Amino acid sequence: MTTNKAAVTKMKASVEPFKLHIAKNTIDDLRQRLRSTRWADGIVEQDWERGTNSSYLRELVKYWIEDFDWPAQEAIINRLHHYRTEIDGIGIHFVHERGKGGRALPLLLTHGYPDSFLRFQKLIPLLTDPAAHGGDPQDSFDVVIPSLPGYGLSDKPQKPGSRFKIAGLWDTLMTDQLGYQRFAAHGGDWGSTVTEQLARSHAESLVGIHLTDVPYSHLFEKFDDLSAEEEKFIAKTQEWQQKEGAYAMIQGSRPQSLAVALNDSPAGLAAWIVEKFRAWSDCDGNVESRFTKDELLTNITLYWATQTIGSSFELYYDSANASKLTWVVEMIKKWTGSNDVPTGFASFPKDLLPPPRAWAERFFNIQRWSEMPRGGHFAAMEEPELLAEDLRAFFRPLR
């Protein structure tokens, strides 16, 4: 990964254009490792109940070796306008695409795990140029998509606790470095946590926020007045945690042990990530009904080439191992922060744990609630048109 030094010109203080480039020897080494995979075949299985289906993984790896064209994918990625900057000693990568027309509203999009800024690739043109996609030109956005610290093209955190600092980094990026007085924000997965923290701690910068899930940490809060619908939801989350949540417990308790394995084996990395894209999407068991091999492998190759699978676990470790004092400070911020920021919510039926509206209203000032007809956890990739229209509609009166 290198910057294109010849093309670098200063835009503003410390904000520089950036081009993604993965060296050929990195890709050659990747292919050699894939060819040398020691397959962990055990009980013959025809489904995914034990994890990633071995037959499908072999097929995907074969494609990765023989047909996947990283330079072509890199060229597509570099059609976007990429930048790097440093905030509080952390190097941050972000995409910045300007909207068409004179009323473009700045919109910050924050991704989650196990994806990257690529989550929003399909969404960008729908937001920046709605008129070209059947929308109203007055609904255009200036789109800013940072890579979370430790994910892909942003720096890896050097100290614990980054989970609690990202909202401040994003506010500095948008207001101080990009010069937006106020902006809109959207996120899912870890992106919903960061977006909520923005609303809580930087409300003066926001016109509104839009989410696709309620941050998981709220499930640890206790309430005596749960409705029957909320109680059913809580029971479902507990069942999900037992059956599907072990990945988060491992990443939050022993991240380094897992990181060594996944950072050394690209087939292992693919198995760990693809399982989530299948399980968390609206694909009816066929992952390629929602994501092409190229989409899956571009995201995985980004993790591989930047060696950031281990650093992507840090948000889980921070959450699981934060001190009591840290959580006290977080609660104080919650009590003193604003809960008045207008919030839009798009609930996709095959997301991990779609909440009832009553649960979301405990934490957010819900002004728009949309029950989507289809789609899952990776809504911006699965149903970009549905998500784009909901974002346009929610932020229209807030411009």
Helix percent reads 40-55%
Largest sheet data:
9 strands, mixed
What are the segments in which pLDDT stays under 50 over at least 5 consecutive residues? 1-11
State the distance separating the first and last CA atoms.
Answer: 38 Å
Order of helices and strands, N to C?
EHHHEEEHEHEHEHHHHHHHHEHEHH
Query: What class, by secondary structure content?
Result: alpha/beta
Count of DSSP E strands? 9
**Broad shape:** globular
The side-by-side strand order for the widest beta sheet comes to 1-2-3-5-4-6-7-8-9
Strand proportion? 5-15%
Radius of gyration: 21 Å
Total number of helices: 17
User: Mean pLDDT across all residues, rounded?
Assistant: 93
Description:
- The protein has 399 residues and is an alpha/beta fold.
- 43% of the residues lie in helices and 13% in strands.
- It is built from 17 helices and nine strands.
- The chain has helices at 24-35, 54-66, 70-77, 123-128, 166-177, 190-201, 228-244, 246-253, 255-264, 266-279, 293-306, 309-312, 314-321, 324-336, 357-361, 379-382, 384-395, and strands spanning 16-18, 82-87, 90-97, 105-110, 141-146, 183-187, 206-211, 342-347, 365-371.
- Helix 15 links the parallel strand 8 (342-347) and strand 9 (365-371).
- Helix 1 (24-35) packs antiparallel against helix 2 (54-66) and helix 10 (266-279) crosses helix 11 (293-306).
- The two termini are 38 Å apart.
- The model is unreliable at 1-11 (pLDDT under 50).
Summarize the structure.
With 399 residues, the chain is of the alpha/beta class.
